[in-house]
Amino acid sequence: MLTILGKPTRKNGQFCDGVSRRSFLKIGGMALGGISLPDVLRAETESQSGSNHKAIINIYLPGGPSHIDLWDPKPDAPKEIRGEFSPIKTNVPGIEICELFPRMATMMDKFIPVRSISDADGRHDAYQCMTGRKFGSRQPPGGWPAAGAFVSKLQGPVNSAVPANVALMYKTGNGTWGEPGTGGFLGVQHSPFNLVGRKARSSPENMVLQGITLERLRDRVKLQQAFDTFRREADTSGLMESMDVYSEQAMNILTTSRLADALDLSKEDPQILARYGKSIETFQRDGAPPMIENFCLARRLVEAGARFVSLNYSRWDWHGPDGMNFPKSREEFPLLDQGLSALVTDLHERGLDKNVSVVVWGEFGRTPKINQNNSRDHWPKVSCAMLAGGGMRTGQVIGKTNRKGEFASDRPVKFQEVFATLYQKAGLDLNGTRIFDTSGTPQYLVDQGIEPMREVI
């Protein structure tokens, strides 16, 4: 497996070896456990490329962000519930969000706050945001595929240079926050192709190439040496039997300018990149780093041919004795506001807003009542999401919680309903598609009876 764009570090925006993030190539194990790039390419020969390049960007906020403090303010609730922030009006009459999202407020007609997600599993992991299903639900043989795996299986790659299902998911200290899901019963060839590196302390199994820059990705001699080294290591662990024709194609992915250019932010218009804000290249405790520029990378990957891009962004679990909920909100919310508004603006300016859907969410919400540490605890009863693009009917709110933000009082929404909506907007046939698992049992993109959110279709 190959990983491009090495991990952020904790020292001056460089890696521990002094190589900057944008000039780093790491070849090692994919975050999917055992998948090789040739496996991805082998699948390409077995599927047809989709004729209509629809895409989905799935932004996961690890740790469970507070629904009340983000996009479902409760100004009429008691102080111990409404918190420290005030709501602000948006450009859509009747929709208010937290005052720390002024950019999004001016373009709320391009967003859809979903305020009533009500079937959170309650687990501290990315599983439900990647698959739509509860971890404890009955699993088919091989397990449930991540959403991007379904897209990869049914639509195939747009071109040979970029896998259909890619991820910008950092390996986190809390491992469940860095898992982009797998191909499940669809097979490893449809698992997410992860494009970012791991923390130094968790990567002893990876072979790292020092000093390989994006400008030198076309140096086939050095790449061949890297593959030869990886082959020797992989052979000893049984991951790869030989370097066949698909391995040659794997090298072509790296030496083809399409993927390399998509990952090279120095090729982005500086004025557009500046809209997103500056990334913080340090991991947030056991979470992901606030790499806000990865929102721009996600857009660039879609333009290069990716159909599904998953990424984890920062860390949103702030309820400990340090009482960091409100101070951390003041740090994190403005950057998220800037990055998300920049992404959606870009999609509209480039004419991608009809074809590219965006979802932003976490695994659950936060307790309405503020605890003794001036923070909010886990609250699976209700959580929120933000949707944009995809030709959806934006400028409306889906669902409602009660006055104290405790539960959905109107239009409860399931994770699978959100995925059903994203699948349909990506061009997948929910009712006519069934895929047989390894036991020969037919499976569906979402559970029978689950429909897209008709309000936005």
TrEMBL record:
PANTHER family listed in its UniProt record? BLL7424 PROTEIN (PTHR43737), DUF1501 DOMAIN-CONTAINING PROTEIN (PTHR43737:SF1)
Tell me what this protein is called: DUF1501 domain-containing protein
